[in-house]
Amino acid sequence: MGFYFAQLLTGLANASSLFLIASGLSIIFGVTRVVNFAHGSLYMLGAYMAYTLVTTLPGVFGFWTGVLLAAAGTAVVGAAIEILILRRIYNSPELFQLVATFGVVLIVQDAALHIWGSEDLLGPRAPMLDRAVRIFGEPIPEYDLALIVIGPLVLGLIWLLFHRTRWGVLVRAATQDREMVGALGVNQRLLFTSTFMVGSFLAGLGGALQVPRESVNLLMDLNIIGEAFVVVVIGGMGSVTGAFVAAVIISVANAFGVLVFPQISMVLPFLVMAIVLVVRPYGLFGTPASAHGATVPEAPLRAMPPAGIALCAAAVVAAALLPLVDDGFLLVLAIDLLVAMLFAASLHFLMGVGGMVSFGHAAYFGLGAYAAALAVRVLDLPMLAAMAFGPLAAALGAMVFGWFCVRLSGVYLAMLTLAAAQILWGVTFQWQSVTGGDDGILGVWPARWASDRAVYFYLALVVCGAGLLLIRRIAHSPFGYVLRGGRDSALRAEAIGIDLTAHQWLGFILAGTLAGVAGAVFVFSKGSVFPDTLAIGQSIDGLIMVLLGGVQSLLGPVFGAAAFVLIEDWVTRLDYWRAIFGAIILLIVLVAPDGIAGALGRLAGLLRLRRPA
Amino acid sequence: MLTRRATVRAGIAALALALAPTAFAPHAAAQDGAPIKIGEINSYTRMAAFTEPYKKGWELALEEINAAGGINGRPLEVLSRDDTGDPATAIRIADELVNRDKVVMIFGTFLSNIGLAVSDFANQSQTLFLASEPLTDALIWSKGNRYTYRLRPGTTMQAAMLAEQAAKTDAVKWVTIAPNYAYGTDAVEAFKRELTKLKPEVEFVEEQWPTLFKIDAGSAVRALEQAKPDGIYNVTFGGDLAKFVREGSLRGLFDDRVVVSLLSGEPEYLEPLGGEAPEGWIVTGYPGFDVDTPEHKAFADAYEAKWGEEPKTGSIVGYNSMMTIKALLETARSMQTDALLETMEGLRVDSPTGPFLYRPVDNQATMGAYVGKTGLVDGKPRMVDWHYAAGEAYLPSEADALKLRPDSQ
């Protein structure tokens, strides 16, 4: 009895920490629609600042002052991010802010490394709360009890703020319908900045309150962000109460989960999220409106003009000549480029053409890679036959997960795809006898006839090139038109008798299959495959490629993938490359809010204008 | 038509000319006085706390080697790259180092999966790879290959050092806690196997597998406590260790129990714990300045003079990697991989932690580790009652090791 009660209290204490960061994330999303990937960085900054402050300021008063000052400091950083970056891109395509906040993540990582050093920092325990008390004979840390009180207390304060102040009323109104609030003459800029500050404050507070529980380190940001998103989604985007309930569910489930099945902590939150989303598509306290704002119908895709086709053909020919100038590495990079292009294009087909944003597209890339690798290692198949297994497995995976995913929309759909990817990742990670777990599958090199780098490059060029052409072809086919129609207005598409869900499901499977092709090409170019290919990082890379390149053009992902791979390859040679990479991403985001393809399009437009009529 | 073909030909000829210098590059490099290029890969941004001292270690050694005239009169040059913590990136970098930069060999890597990825690449591209830090047993045994050598004592070796100490205690009922990935599972399996061998009556009653760097320490501690063990075997490290120690001592988990903890004596993991570092844990690690052999004193003093801090485990690993390379390149009859492999077999290296050699049978160095207890000296965590455990005592016999290796070589 006492044991289970104690375990419950431990879960509740964890829930409070999780709630603080998730509530801030939820509030920011509710008002500004920004999927703030940098929220984990704000949490980490809060923890670092609190460490510095509480080790400087003495005593109980010093500790709590330090915590609050750290949260306030984080709020100031949040304001700077909002004013300097996000404010300029609110009108960019959906999710463009995600890329910008990812740039911020990279910069903050290097800034924290520079300021606080690489070593883990263990702060002091909270004064007066540094012992354990016995409840039903079980030792419970006093600080855990304090956290259990702080969570609901903050929830209450947020409730008061939202229901008893004019600012709160405006924020709630903006969560419901921000255009209307703008039309009523409310200063949106101030509202957005202040909301972002409140959210950042909560993230900073969450980080600061962790100082007495764990060491402050450079991995805190990415370690927390996934779980924070899960909590926000389970609760319903924009709902603070929902975030609280979800944080309690996740943390308590985890506390008891480790007793029954200790390995489960790896995927448990995502499993819970998947179940909740399947049963309640908009989270526990969310509404369909909270998925995200209506998309603006895009201009129809136009067939490529002859000049464009000539340019593309020239690019392919130039690529085909690459082996002549290979310096031992150029082809390696070129194969990576081709793989990235097909991966990004398949994701773009899903989100740009199909209107279904995926945060877990790496799942199908990874499935393709693993299936091809296993076909070699287990079935002993030759390379080409093994490669065919990649897209097959990816198609199967996309069929299963897609069936659930296409029933949702917007951010909820994105999060369910993420859950699917995380569950698959967990499986590859745990199923050591088959997948090799973290040790991966090694020795999957090209067949003898393709072992020459140039031969494999041509193979990749043909396979990936064919994939890109196929995507283009389908986007311009009636099927592509149906998908785009459904994306721009699901209601009208269904009104004229189109079974949109079935079409979207097919589109989902197709995108997954092509990602699987990319994965199969990838695995033979690297000779090995590890769970990292299905991890969140790979999915995020794909998103960045697509968004950098521009969502509204079929060529966008090709440019985006090229830019991403080339910049990353070059920049990782430098010290503080993360900060530089982040700055480059931000620069592209700010200068070309419609992506590289959009910028090129505008450039072409300008040139045409100058031409004498 | 003709003109176009001529243009293409001219183009190809121009390209061939442009390529010519690269084609002759190896010859140029072989000239006397040209630097010997070595490739180095590690997770500098992902694992900064561990790879920073490691880099300082090999940089110190490199400086000393070049100040003393290099390798047989040729300076040594290291091309160092960050793998960003991603195996695929690590392979790409290795490819560039080998095929474009024409390095004679590669060393480095920290994470086990990256170590394995680079090792597989080395096997494919027939390049020598000296794995400095990754601990996984697979690297030298189940997935070993003739191109890969490993410096540090691996998971099983270190677990065996601890099992030897654990067997001397009265503890019979054991629980384990380890991060949920290959290193953690290997470390637990090896400890169970070795301890059961030495003391058949032991039983393992509970295990916890927190996600790496995401430990829910309170819940895990409670689950361990519930099993009422005599002994605890811990494999968590970094931020997880700090959380585990704090939550565990708050709840009295470690009171009157034997705690055996892998790597926890390493300054990288022990120092951040500060005054809260547990006392009396049996650990493997590195006692820093306390090692007072003349060789080690010279190293530690030079390290402190250059970097202004005490050497850490990473420092010694980086330094010994470079000492291995020095010994190898000075003895090898040429810089060709075949000659290097021939020299690596049984290569003897003198190092600050004493001499060690590379076993030909499984390419594992016999470099050991320090085994001792944690304690507080002047309020600072240190290793106490330590001794140096030479690696060869904890390796399987050559015949057994051979059975562990894949026969396809």
Layout of secondary structure:
The complex is a heterodimer of chains A (613) and B (409).
Chain A: H1 2-32, H2 39-56, H3 59-84, H4 96-116, E1 132-135, E2 138-141, H5 142-164, H6 166-176, H7 178-183, H8 188-210, H9 220-235, H10 240-260, H11 268-279, H12 306-320, H13 330-353, H14 362-377, H15 383-405, H16 410-430, H17 432-435, H18 453-475, H19 478-488, H20 490-495, H21 500-526, H22 536-549, H23 556-571, H24 577-591, H25 595-610
Antiparallel strand pairs in A: 1-2
Chain B: H1 2-30, E1 36-42, H2 48-67, E2 76-82, H3 87-100, E3 105-108, H4 112-125, E4 128-131, E5 148-150, H5 155-167, E6 173-177, H6 182-198, E7 203-208, H7 217-226, E8 231-234, H8 239-250, E9 258-265, H9 267-270, E10 282-285, H10 294-307, H11 313-331, H12 337-344, E11 348-349, E12 356-357, E13 369-377, E14 380-389, H13 398-404
Task: Give a structural overview.
The complex is a heterodimer of chains A (613) and B (409). Helix content of chain A is 72%, strand content 1%. Chain A starts with a helix and ends with a helix. Chain A has helices at 2-32, 39-56, 59-84, 96-116, 142-164, 166-176, 178-183, 188-210, 220-235, 240-260, 268-279, 306-320, 330-353, 362-377, 383-405, 410-430, 432-435, 453-475, 478-488, 490-495, 500-526, 536-549, 556-571, 577-591, 595-610, and strands spanning 132-135, 138-141. In chain A, helix 3 (59-84) packs antiparallel against helix 8. Chain A is built from 25 helices and 2 strands. Chain B is 44% helix and 18% strand. In chain B, strands 7-6-8-9-10-13-14 form a 7-stranded mixed sheet, sandwiched between helices. Chain B has a 5-stranded parallel sheet with strand order 2-1-3-4-5, with helices on both faces. The longest helix of chain B has 29 residues, at 2-30. Chain B is globular, with a radius of gyration of 23 Å. Chains A and B meet through helix 1, helix 4, strand 2, helix 9 and helix 10 of A and helix 1, helix 2, helix 3, helix 4 and helix 6 of B.
